[in-house]
Amino acid sequence: MQWLMYELSKRPEAQQKAREEAIRIGGGDNVLRAPDFDDYNNMDYIHGCVMECLRLHPPVVSMVKTCAKSTKIGKTSIPKGSCIYVNAKACHLYGEDFNTTEFTGAQFAPERFLDKDFKQKVQTSGAWFPFNMSNRKCIGYMFAQIELCIMLCRMLQFYEFKLLNDESKPAEKVEDLPGITFRPSSNLKVLVTRRTK
Protein backbone atom coordinates (compact mmCIF):
# COMPACT_ATOMS: atom_id res chain seq x y z
CA MET A 1 0.00 0.00 0.00
CA GLN A 2 2.95 2.33 0.70
CA TRP A 3 4.19 1.89 -2.86
CA LEU A 4 0.70 2.60 -4.26
CA MET A 5 0.45 5.82 -2.28
CA TYR A 6 3.96 6.77 -3.40
CA GLU A 7 3.32 6.11 -7.11
CA LEU A 8 -0.10 7.79 -7.12
CA SER A 9 1.29 10.84 -5.31
CA LYS A 10 3.89 11.19 -8.08
CA ARG A 11 1.17 10.96 -10.78
CA PRO A 12 -1.73 13.19 -9.66
CA GLU A 13 -3.58 12.59 -12.95
CA ALA A 14 -3.49 8.82 -12.36
CA GLN A 15 -4.61 9.38 -8.77
CA GLN A 16 -7.54 11.47 -10.04
CA LYS A 17 -8.59 8.84 -12.62
CA ALA A 18 -8.50 6.16 -9.93
CA ARG A 19 -10.47 8.42 -7.58
CA GLU A 20 -13.15 9.05 -10.21
CA GLU A 21 -13.52 5.29 -10.64
CA ALA A 22 -13.67 4.83 -6.84
CA ILE A 23 -16.41 7.47 -6.52
CA ARG A 24 -18.39 5.93 -9.39
CA ILE A 25 -18.13 2.50 -7.75
CA GLY A 26 -19.21 4.05 -4.43
CA GLY A 27 -22.37 5.47 -6.01
CA GLY A 28 -21.31 9.11 -6.31
CA ASP A 29 -20.07 11.78 -3.90
CA ASN A 30 -23.32 11.91 -1.92
CA VAL A 31 -23.39 8.18 -1.10
CA LEU A 32 -19.88 6.67 -1.17
CA ARG A 33 -20.68 3.17 -0.02
CA ALA A 34 -17.72 0.93 0.75
CA PRO A 35 -16.62 -1.29 -2.16
CA ASP A 36 -16.96 -5.03 -1.80
CA PHE A 37 -15.93 -8.18 -3.64
CA ASP A 38 -18.70 -7.74 -6.23
CA ASP A 39 -17.17 -4.39 -7.25
CA TYR A 40 -13.75 -5.87 -8.03
CA ASN A 41 -14.54 -6.64 -11.68
CA ASN A 42 -15.49 -2.97 -12.23
CA MET A 43 -12.18 -1.62 -10.91
CA ASP A 44 -10.37 -1.52 -14.25
CA TYR A 45 -8.21 1.54 -13.62
CA ILE A 46 -7.66 0.79 -9.93
CA HIS A 47 -6.63 -2.76 -10.81
CA GLY A 48 -4.30 -1.29 -13.45
CA CYS A 49 -2.72 0.86 -10.70
CA VAL A 50 -2.25 -2.19 -8.49
CA MET A 51 -0.77 -4.31 -11.30
CA GLU A 52 1.55 -1.49 -12.36
CA CYS A 53 2.70 -0.90 -8.79
CA LEU A 54 3.36 -4.63 -8.36
CA ARG A 55 5.35 -4.55 -11.61
CA LEU A 56 7.57 -1.68 -10.43
CA HIS A 57 7.79 -2.88 -6.81
CA PRO A 58 7.33 -6.67 -6.84
CA PRO A 59 6.90 -8.25 -3.41
CA VAL A 60 8.96 -11.27 -4.50
CA VAL A 61 12.44 -9.77 -4.77
CA SER A 62 13.97 -12.64 -6.67
CA MET A 63 13.59 -16.32 -7.23
CA VAL A 64 15.85 -19.24 -7.99
CA LYS A 65 14.83 -21.79 -10.59
CA THR A 66 16.53 -25.06 -11.52
CA CYS A 67 17.12 -25.75 -15.20
CA ALA A 68 15.08 -28.92 -15.96
CA LYS A 69 16.99 -29.80 -19.13
CA SER A 70 20.15 -28.61 -20.84
CA THR A 71 19.39 -25.67 -23.08
CA LYS A 72 21.03 -22.86 -25.01
CA ILE A 73 20.02 -19.21 -25.00
CA GLY A 74 21.82 -17.38 -27.75
CA LYS A 75 25.43 -18.50 -27.44
CA THR A 76 25.14 -19.42 -23.76
CA SER A 77 24.76 -23.08 -22.80
CA ILE A 78 22.90 -23.81 -19.57
CA PRO A 79 23.42 -27.35 -18.25
CA LYS A 80 20.59 -29.33 -16.67
CA GLY A 81 20.48 -28.77 -12.90
CA SER A 82 21.91 -25.23 -13.07
CA CYS A 83 20.47 -22.69 -10.64
CA ILE A 84 18.99 -19.73 -12.47
CA TYR A 85 18.56 -16.49 -10.52
CA VAL A 86 15.55 -14.49 -11.74
CA ASN A 87 15.37 -10.82 -10.78
CA ALA A 88 11.67 -9.92 -11.01
CA LYS A 89 12.19 -6.16 -10.88
CA ALA A 90 14.76 -6.19 -13.69
CA CYS A 91 12.47 -8.32 -15.86
CA HIS A 92 9.57 -5.95 -15.20
CA LEU A 93 11.62 -2.82 -15.94
CA TYR A 94 13.58 -3.96 -18.97
CA GLY A 95 11.34 -6.59 -20.55
CA GLU A 96 10.25 -5.83 -24.10
CA ASP A 97 6.56 -6.08 -23.17
CA PHE A 98 6.87 -3.05 -20.89
CA ASN A 99 9.08 -0.84 -23.07
CA THR A 100 6.90 0.47 -25.88
CA THR A 101 6.61 3.60 -27.97
CA GLU A 102 3.96 4.81 -25.53
CA PHE A 103 5.59 4.01 -22.17
CA THR A 104 9.03 3.10 -20.86
CA GLY A 105 9.48 0.24 -18.42
CA ALA A 106 10.42 2.68 -15.65
CA GLN A 107 7.20 4.71 -15.95
CA PHE A 108 4.20 4.19 -13.67
CA ALA A 109 1.53 3.76 -16.35
CA PRO A 110 -1.64 1.96 -15.18
CA GLU A 111 -3.06 2.58 -18.65
CA ARG A 112 -0.94 -0.25 -20.05
CA PHE A 113 -3.09 -2.74 -18.11
CA LEU A 114 -6.40 -1.38 -19.45
CA ASP A 115 -5.80 -3.37 -22.64
CA LYS A 116 -7.32 -6.73 -21.68
CA ASP A 117 -5.30 -8.62 -24.33
CA PHE A 118 -2.03 -7.13 -23.05
CA LYS A 119 -3.03 -7.89 -19.46
CA GLN A 120 -3.79 -11.52 -20.31
CA LYS A 121 -0.61 -11.87 -22.39
CA VAL A 122 1.82 -10.66 -19.72
CA GLN A 123 0.13 -12.72 -17.01
CA THR A 124 0.14 -15.98 -18.98
CA SER A 125 3.53 -15.53 -20.70
CA GLY A 126 5.41 -14.99 -17.45
CA ALA A 127 6.41 -11.41 -18.32
CA TRP A 128 4.56 -10.10 -15.22
CA PHE A 129 5.28 -12.20 -12.15
CA PRO A 130 5.32 -10.18 -8.92
CA PHE A 131 4.07 -13.22 -6.98
CA ASN A 132 6.43 -15.73 -8.64
CA MET A 133 5.07 -17.98 -11.37
CA SER A 134 3.79 -21.41 -12.30
CA ASN A 135 3.34 -23.91 -9.48
CA ARG A 136 5.51 -21.73 -7.19
CA LYS A 137 3.13 -18.75 -7.43
CA CYS A 138 1.98 -17.36 -4.09
CA ILE A 139 -1.21 -19.13 -3.07
CA GLY A 140 -2.72 -15.81 -1.95
CA TYR A 141 -1.92 -13.76 -5.06
CA MET A 142 -5.57 -13.21 -6.07
CA PHE A 143 -6.60 -12.40 -2.51
CA ALA A 144 -3.76 -9.85 -2.29
CA GLN A 145 -4.79 -8.13 -5.55
CA ILE A 146 -8.48 -8.01 -4.62
CA GLU A 147 -7.67 -6.74 -1.12
CA LEU A 148 -5.35 -4.03 -2.49
CA CYS A 149 -7.97 -2.90 -5.02
CA ILE A 150 -10.76 -2.70 -2.45
CA MET A 151 -8.55 -0.90 0.12
CA LEU A 152 -7.25 1.57 -2.47
CA CYS A 153 -10.76 2.20 -3.77
CA ARG A 154 -12.02 3.03 -0.28
CA MET A 155 -9.03 5.22 0.54
CA LEU A 156 -9.38 7.19 -2.70
CA GLN A 157 -13.03 7.91 -1.92
CA PHE A 158 -11.95 9.95 1.12
CA TYR A 159 -8.26 10.84 0.88
CA GLU A 160 -5.67 12.49 -1.35
CA PHE A 161 -1.97 11.58 -1.40
CA LYS A 162 0.82 14.12 -1.88
CA LEU A 163 4.52 13.25 -2.03
CA LEU A 164 6.56 15.48 0.29
CA ASN A 165 9.96 14.18 -0.85
CA ASP A 166 11.87 16.37 -3.30
CA GLU A 167 13.38 13.49 -5.26
CA SER A 168 15.69 15.82 -7.18
CA LYS A 169 17.75 15.83 -3.95
CA PRO A 170 19.70 12.57 -3.47
CA ALA A 171 18.96 12.47 0.28
CA GLU A 172 15.20 12.55 -0.39
CA LYS A 173 15.09 10.01 -3.21
CA VAL A 174 12.95 7.03 -2.26
CA GLU A 175 14.72 3.71 -2.81
CA ASP A 176 13.76 0.04 -2.79
CA LEU A 177 15.10 -1.71 0.29
CA PRO A 178 15.35 -5.47 -0.20
CA GLY A 179 14.30 -7.86 2.49
CA ILE A 180 11.76 -10.65 2.44
CA THR A 181 9.90 -8.17 0.22
CA PHE A 182 10.94 -4.83 -1.30
CA ARG A 183 9.94 -1.95 0.94
CA PRO A 184 10.39 1.80 0.55
CA SER A 185 13.30 3.49 2.28
CA SER A 186 12.43 5.12 5.59
CA ASN A 187 12.65 8.62 4.12
CA LEU A 188 9.34 8.19 2.22
CA LYS A 189 6.99 11.01 3.18
CA VAL A 190 3.45 11.03 1.79
CA LEU A 191 0.93 13.51 3.13
CA VAL A 192 -2.53 11.94 3.38
CA THR A 193 -5.32 14.53 3.62
CA ARG A 194 -9.09 14.25 3.70
CA ARG A 195 -10.56 14.97 0.28
CA THR A 196 -12.50 18.24 0.11
CA LYS A 197 -14.22 17.93 -3.27
Automatic annotation (TrEMBL):
The keyword Repressor does not apply. Pfam families: p450. Its cofactor is heme. This is Predicted protein. Heme binds at C138. Belongs to the cytochrome P450 family. It comes from the Eukaryota. Keywords: Heme, Iron, Metal-binding, Monooxygenase, Oxidoreductase. One of its GO terms (molecular function) is heme binding.
